[in-house]
Design brief:
It contains six helices and no strands. The chain is mainly α and about 180 residues long. Helix 1 runs antiparallel to helix 2. It starts with a helix and ends in a 25-residue tail after the last helix.
């Protein structure tokens, strides 16, 4: 009889260890996915100063647009966490799009190889960022599903596994951002 109880206790402990290890793997996958998003955001943030400088050389009187982009970039660098960062990044996307739209008003800017290269780099980064965000949100979904599912829920609550944050912009911050590479 003690053997059966011992075997059952061992099975429960092994099951809890398996659940714990799976939750740790999913949490680390979610954190790694966020790091990938952060890398792409950093790449975009690194492109903003040279983009602003290139545009300023041709369209210096567009101070408001250029200042907004620089200010939003600086804000984004100080914010952590997907939920707090998403609105600032959405605003930065819109502001960068306005800067890129200045190319139509300034033919010299449209002909600048430096500006065109920055524009192409930005398009590539935006594509990679979109993929990284989707992957991150998928990792958060998988992790949150595991944390909320029985019997994993019991282990998760006992060991302090909380829910992950999705990266999403609010409804009013989702207008389509159109970025086109120069021809």
């Amino acid at each position: 009889m003690i053997w059966i109880v011992g075997a059952m206790l061992a099975a429960v402990l092994l099951g809890a260890a398996w659940v714990f290890n799976r939750l740790v793997r999913l949490r680390n996958q979610m954190r790694g996915a966020w790091a990938d998003v952060d890398v792409q955001l950093t790449r975009r943030h690194d492109l903003v100063p040279p983009l602003v400088a290139a545009v300023r050389a041709y369209a210096g009187h567009e101070r408001d647009v250029l200042a907004a982009v620089s200010e939003l970039r600086d804000q984004a660098l100080t914010i952590d966490g997907p939920a707090r960062l998403a609105p600032v990044e959405a605003a930065l996307e819109r502001a960068v799009t306005r800067v890129l739209a200045l190319e139509e008003a300034y033919p010299d800017l449209k002909a600048s190889e430096n500006f065109l290269q920055l524009q192409r780099d930005l398009v590539r980064i935006e594509e990679q960022l979109q993929y990284a965000r989707r992957y991150y949100n998928g990792a958060v979904r998988d992790y949150n599903d595991a944390v909320q599912r029985v019997p994993d829920l019991l282990v998760a609550r006992a060991l302090g596994f909380g829910l992950g944050e999705f990266y999403q912009a609010r409804e009013d911050e989702r207008p389509a951002v159109r970025v086109e590479a120069g021809r």
